[in-house]
Amino acid sequence: MRRAAFWQGYRDCAPFIAVVVPFSMLFGVVARDAGLDILQVMAMSVLVIAGASQFTALALLQEQAPVFVALAAALAVNLRMALYSAALVPHVGHAPLGTRALMAYLMVDQAYAVAVKTYEDQPRMSRDDKVAYYFGVMALICPFWYGCTLLGAVIGEAIPPQLSLDFAAPVCFIAITAPLLRSLPHILAAAVSVLCAILFAGFPSGLGLIAAAIVAMLVGAQAELALRRRNLRSAP
């Protein structure tokens, strides 16, 4: 059964490759344009394996922001991974420490979105099958992420301007986020994050992104608490 679960995850994540390919190529192109050599581009992509954080840190460093600000902004963008991990604990928290460490390294938005939806839709899936399914998801994404980052770094300067890859990032996050906006707190947090990102765009050194993330998390958490209190009061 574990082999079947692995290949199910592999197949279920296939549609995201249409976005992972241009997104990773875009990072390779932008990183080379920012002055990084191929080794630095690949080291960043392999060690971080988080596109949004990589773009955030790269953009801030290009603007001559202090290194600690770039790191703080990248960390703020990646704080959602802690929430993803907490949500996955009931499903894969039984795995050995080494396995969980590898799963944490491989954690990306697509892996979480596909895995958690499948776990919720198939509550009878065994715990071992859930782990195998997760690795199946990432077995497809990782090679494309690494390989297309390298491809973008190598041929980036040869890509004509009319073949812009800028659409990849927004399309990726829309595809991932939209199906997960299932409750009022989720929708409020998403709306507030967009609004605050626009309002705080003038903050120096990319601090507006950090501020927008913090405000959105606070609003989402408060909305969740308010909703739970209302449900408790209305319960018989």
Helices and strands in order:
Blueprint lengths: L1 H11 L4 H17 L4 H11 L2 H12 L4 H12 L1 H13 L4 H10 L2 H13 L5 H29 L12 H10 L6 H16 L7 H28 L2
Helix pairs in contact: 1-9, 2-4, 2-9, 2-10, 3-9, 4-5, 5-12, 6-8, 8-9, 11-12
- Please count the helical segments: 12
What class, by secondary structure content? Answer: mainly alpha
Q: What is the makeup of the main sheet?
A: none
The proportion of residues forming helix, as a percent range, comes to over 70%
H and E string = HHHHHHHHHHHH
In total, the number of strands is 0
* Percent strand: under 5%
Shape estimate: globular
GO cellular component, one term: plasma membrane
Family: Belongs to the AzlC family.
InterPro entries: Brnchd-chn_aa_trnsp_permease
Keywords: Cell membrane, Membrane, Transmembrane, Transmembrane helix, Transport
Please give a quick description of this structure:
With 236 residues, this protein is an all-alpha fold. The chain has helices spanning 2-12, 17-33, 38-48, 51-62, 67-78, 80-92, 97-106, 109-121, 127-155, 168-177, 184-199, 207-234.
Can you give keywords for this protein?
12 helices, globular
Describe, in plain words, how this protein is organized in 3D:
The longest helix has 29 residues, at 127-155. The protein has helices at residues 2-12, 17-33, 38-48, 51-62, 67-78, 80-92, 97-106, 109-121, 127-155, 168-177, 184-199, 207-234. The radius of gyration is 19 Å and the shape is globular. It has a domain at 2-67 and 80-159. It is built from twelve helices and no strands. The protein is an all-alpha fold and 236 residues long. Helix 2 (17-33) packs across helix 9 (127-155) and helix 5 packs parallel to helix 12. The mean pLDDT is 82. Helix content is 77%, strand content 0%.
